[in-house]
Design a protein that fits this description.
The structure is a single chain. The longest helix has 23 residues. The protein has one domain: Uracil-DNA glycosylase-like domain (Uracil-DNA Glycosylase, subunit E), CATH 3.40.470.10. The chain is built from 7 helices and 7 strands. A hairpin with an 8-residue loop joins strand 4 and strand 5. The strands form 2 sheets. Strands 3-2-6-7 form a 4-stranded parallel sheet. It has a 3-stranded antiparallel sheet with strand order 1-4-5, with no helix packed on it. The chain is an alpha/beta fold.
């Protein structure tokens, strides 16, 4: 197994002033860090879930501009709970020595009304490091990671849709 490395996040959050929902992961995987954008592992189901729920095509793996535009169009901000940490490879279980992200960068520019954590690790880290600062209780949804093999794409999409679709619809109404 790889040794621990102290790694900084490496790329910016996605948001604009119209963002109303903040989706937080834990920390970028090795492939995401290599691709310099969120959910860069083609086996991660995040982009397929979001595309299905928004009725938009799945962006190509390395098409960062399309991924950003998809999120912004639907009022979704995206970042991770951790700004830097010690980690072995992509293992969330190995994360230690956490420096939390400065989510104030997002909340000072956008009226975030809901927080969704992508998986229990992100949820636990959010509760520990950021919930008190934001004052919003997060909804923790099943991880879209390929490591979460017990959840099929259909099941993930259904569960994420129960929470995210009403929030996206509210955001859309606010833009009308």
């Amino acid at each position: 197994m790889a040794d621990y490395q102290h790694i900084a996040h490496g790329f910016e959050p996605v948001f604009d002033e119209r963002s109303r929902v903040l989706v937080l992961g834990s920390f970028p995987s090795v492939l995401s860090r290599q691709n310099a954008f969120y959910y860069g592992n083609p086996r991660n189901r995040f982009w397929r879930v979001i595309s299905s729920l928004t009725g938009e095509p799945v962006p190509k793996t390395r098409d960062v501009a399309s991924k950003r535009a998809l999120l912004v169009r639907h009022g979704i901000a995206l970042w991770d709970v951790i700004e830097s940490c010690d980690v072995r490879g992509s293992s969330d279980a190995s994360i230690r020595n956490v420096t939390p992200a400065d989510v104030g960068r997002i909340t000072s520019a956008a009226r975030i009304g809901a927080v969704i954590c992508n998986g229990s690790t992100a949820g636990g880290l959010y509760h520990r490091w950021l919930e008190g600062e934001l004052g919003l209780v997060a909804t923790v949804l099943p991880s879209t990671s390929p490591a979460n093999a017990s959840w099929s794409l259909a099941r993930l999409t259904e569960r994420w849709g129960e929470v995210l679709v009403p929030l996206i619809e509210k955001t859309g109404e606010a833009h009308d």
